[in-house]
Write a structure and sequence with these properties.
The structure holds three protein chains of three kinds. By secondary structure, chain A is of the alpha+beta class. Chain A has a domain of 29 residues. Chain A is 25% helix and 16% strand. In chain A, strands 2-1-3 form a three-stranded antiparallel beta sheet, with helices on one face. In chain A, a hairpin with a 7-residue loop joins β1 and β2. The longest helix of chain A has 12 residues. The model of chain C has no long low-confidence stretch (mean pLDDT 97). In chain C, α5 crosses α9. Chain C is globular. Classes of the chains: A alpha+beta, B mainly alpha, C mainly alpha. At the A-B interface, α2, β1 and β2 of A face α3, α4, α6 and α11 of B.
Chain lengths: 134, 327, 252
Amino acid sequence: MALEDKKRIESLDPRISRAHLSGGNHEDMTGLLHFQTYEVFHQNKRGAQHKHVGIVHAPNSDMALLYAKEQYARREQTANIWVAPSSCISATEYADDDIFTTTPEKLYRNPATYKVMDRIQAFKERGMTPSDEV
Amino acid sequence: MYGNAYIDPNEKFSSEEETPELLAAFQARIDAGDKIEPQDWMPAMYRKQLIRMIEQHAHSEIIGSLPEGTWITRAPGFRRKLALMAKVQDEVGHAQLLYSAAETLGKSREDMMNDLITGKSKYSNIFNYPALTWADSAVIAWLVDAGAIVNQLANSKGSYGPYCRALERICYEESFHLKYGHDNVVHLATGTKKQREMVQAAMTRWWTPLMHFFGPSDKASVHSDTLMRWKVKMASNDAMRQQFMDMYIPKIWDLGLTLPDPLLKKNTETGLWDYTEPDWEEFKRVINGDGPCNAERLAVRRMAEENGRWVARAINNEEAEHVRPFA
Amino acid sequence: MNNIDALKELLYKMADDQLIIGHRNSEWNGLGPILEEDIAFSSMAQDKMGQSEHLYNLLNQLGEADADTVAFTRNAPQFHCSHLVELPIGGYDFSLIRHFLFDFAEYLRFEALKTSAYQPLAQVAKKFFGEVKYHTMHANTWVYQLGHGNEESNGKMQESLNFAWDYALGMFEPGPAEEMLINENIFIGEEALQAKWLEVVIPLLEKSNLVIPEKSSWAPIYGGRTGNHTAHLQPLLSEMTEVYSIDPSADW
């Protein structure tokens, strides 16, 4: 008994005092359940893209939506939220990110590389004569 | 079946050995200012240190909600009550974000929670001290959060993507904590005689724990050099402590409050603050479990998890597939 | 009793209910059973507290003291809250059942008040309707899942429902000026509200695999609206005002 008394926690927090806790227990808490994870996608306003913002732990998608609202939309303006189980996400490998390396070099998709004004100017300056008749 | 861990603790994350080539490529990525993502190859020590650091940070948030929580049912007036509730809520939310970041490295939240409750992993020592009065909660909200922000801003420039992303959100959300704490301290310090006495007493009580907050001077070692090079550790304890002192001591003195260290002054030659070394033996004692509130903090967390057991058991989906989150 | 007094009576009981349940639910902050749930429950407690402050501000416009004074200086006999909200938080089962029973009542009360002839109250009802709607979604999701969870969770929820039911009926204690409020189109009255509430909560509870106590046994627990409270309220108030009352004239 004396040992028990010694372990009894006196708290300054009235909420904790009411719980009558004892300290000194270092046993493992086996079998804890924090559920699987859901990836959360947040849309700040209609018309905007949903953006990945993080995860929540939840037992099912209904709960995941309830939690995503509070964890990722309690500050931000929000129009809509999606959740998807993390196990449903597929991703490319970072180790294979060289599959993307030449993309920025493919300038034929870059509108800024289409410069016709010089050509039109030269055409006008030579009296709009066909190139093979100059 | 879910065995309480995403991965076997003995699982090798990579089949590849830590060859000089892999290490050099890893270092080159960090030197180039690129972030490391969870699926990247990384040295085992990098993974281990990050788990330890992010997990401790998460524990510090969840345990850190308790000293201020002491006053949640007694906050004076609507404005303070609502702000304190929101602040404690944010701390739980930040724990969630940080546990999530640590999970991407392969340790489950269940395992992290168990290691917290059984005392296997640590949290910030400062939360082992009691918030004796309302004014203590004000000093915590201002200065402990200020210290945390110095630390978090440094770490947000680190190399691990998920940790940086979590810290970015956390720093954004915590900007109001600091303002709330300062506003609260200012109201007490410029208020009635009684209020002033309360806040001075609290300031005196919290000074030593605040000086302990950034930890003892780091000794130069190969270990900490490596962590600095990998951008796991971003600034020395002393540098962060000096930064904190530089930013906040003038603000404390500005309110006519005193700090219990006669040596405290900015050295005009070195540009650094002179101070009395706090009692580092006390620091060690408290961090090893013998502080005023260690037992209570862990017992409360244990209670919360115990209270959650029947709830979780009832709604858990046993068929659900558990994977490491991507980001 | 004139119009203004009747209106004040309505505002006081709503605000006091919100303040006290908000305070009770804030007791879970940082101690909740699941991290994510802790965050959600705290938000709802903040919402309740914020709603009560708005209603106290309306009372202030009608000549009552400011919100802080009203909330932090009255004693139990001056409070108009129902007994349901005063009860200690108990286990999570009770806190969830109370949240369910209270929030559906508040949702329906706000829905009715959206068209109140008293414009300031109609505006408050419209402004906070979304908050209360989320509270009912949260409550119903939980009650449904724990009702269907396993034997243990169903048993706990059923026991809490049995315990809470008569207290919940006590929320609809008629006021002294029901007819005046109805005739002036300020509020539909407690009797009509209770009927709507029963229509909504009974099917939801049944869908959640829970059994409504036998109607013949219903015995609403009244008294809160007239200042007769359970033994739990005064200690709650003493705790809530502990710092404020060090010096009520100080700026905290």
